[in-house]
Design a protein that fits this description.
By secondary structure, the chain is α/β, with parallel strands linked by helices. It has helices spanning 46-49, 72-77, 88-98, 115-121, 137-146, 182-188, 202-214; strands spanning 2-6, 9-13, 18-23, 26-30, 37-39, 42-44, 56-58, 64-68, 105-109, 126-130, 152-155, 168-173, 189-199, 218-223, 230-232, 237-239, 249-254. 23% of the residues lie in helices and 33% in strands. Strands 11-10-9-12-13-17-14 form a seven-stranded mixed sheet, with helices on both faces. Strands 4-1-8-7 form a four-stranded antiparallel sheet, with no helix packed on it. Bound molecules: S-adenosylmethionine (SAM).
Length: 257
């Protein structure tokens, strides 16, 4: 796999008294480097796609592209999504709050598109992900393979019916009625481990927290992560018109006894 980065080019136009964009900055993701790759700005030869990172190569239309090897996040962003996935701003908060690391064992449900399971598999020892809907399984397997992950076990099972894994560091529940899975999740978590609910709606968050208290887990905090992009260039320094709005409430709970 390779990334081809076409750099944005701007030019000052005296008549307009401002810079205009001549070439849009754009990234192309190349999955097969054995063949020539065509873009709207010409074709890049297969031999050029194999150039070392940072090399500037030219298309047959004389346009310049930088060759890069994609990192995990570059590939992650391009996974095929079926149901709505947990996105990086929320994934980051879950990792930071729970402190999962290379020794951690995590359980995730529902797998959905496998996005969250794949991201954490990149940093933890092992992930077991439960998914009830067979329509999503092939896509999840394809996403796991695309990222080359070997430490995810995908289970085609209803998580509310039981979690076989025990002593796990983290259980995450991103499903419509997560409260039904709280008792079994509480059983699976080790003392000191976390259960995190990912609930788009307030009503879900309330029911989830009721179940958490009944199961004897300790609510730690409920947060919403807002990511607000800014536009900063020669002419503007302000928040962007478009930002990512509400995704979900992240409900962090912990097993103390
Ligand atoms: C919003 S998606 C999860 C997305 C996933 N977190 C990701 O990042 O790609 C919710 C998933 O939960 C699954 N699901 C619903 N109830 C379930 C259950 N009881 N056991 C396992 N999976 C369940 C649904 O089929 C759906 O795929």
């Amino acid at each position: 796999m390779k990334l081809l980065i076409q750099r944005e080019k701007k030019q000052y136009v005296p008549d307009l008294d401002r810079e205009v964009t001549i070439v849009e900055g754009k990234e192309y993701f190349v999955t097969d480097t054995s063949k020539d790759f065509s873009t709207m700005h010409g074709t890049i030869k297969a031999k050029d796609l194999k150039a070392k990172d940072g090399t500037i190569v030219k298309s047959n239309q004389d346009k310049e592209f930088i060759v890069l090897t994609p990192c995990f996040s570059d590939i992650f962003r391009r996974l095929k999504r079926m149901p709505q996935s947990i996105i990086p701003k929320d994934i980051g908060a879950i990792i930071a709050e729970t402190g999962i690391d290379g020794e951690s064992v995590c359980v995730d449900a529902g797998a959905g598109s496998g996005a969250f399971a794949c991201f954490i598999a990149h940093i933890v020892k092992k992930v077991v992900s439960y998914e009830i809907n067979d329509k999503y399984l092939e896509n999840i397997k394809a996403n796991i393979e695309t990222l080359g992950l070997k430490n995810i076990t995908l289970k085609h099972q209803d998580v509310t019916q039981g979690i076989a894994e025990k002593n796990v560091d983290l259980v995450t529940l991103d499903l419509p009625e997560p409260w039904h899975a709280v008792p079994t999740a509480a059983n699976a978590i080790k003392i000191g481990g976390y259960l995190v609910g990912y609930c788009p709606h307030v009503s879900q968050a309330q029911k989830f927290l009721d179940a958490v208290k009944k199961a004897g887990l300790q609510p730690i905090k409920t947060v919403e992560v807002i990511e607000r992009p800014w536009v900063i260039d020669e002419h503007r320094t302000r928040p962007d018109n478009i930002s990512i709005g509400h995704t979900a409430f992240l409900i962090f709970t912990r097993k103390y006894t």
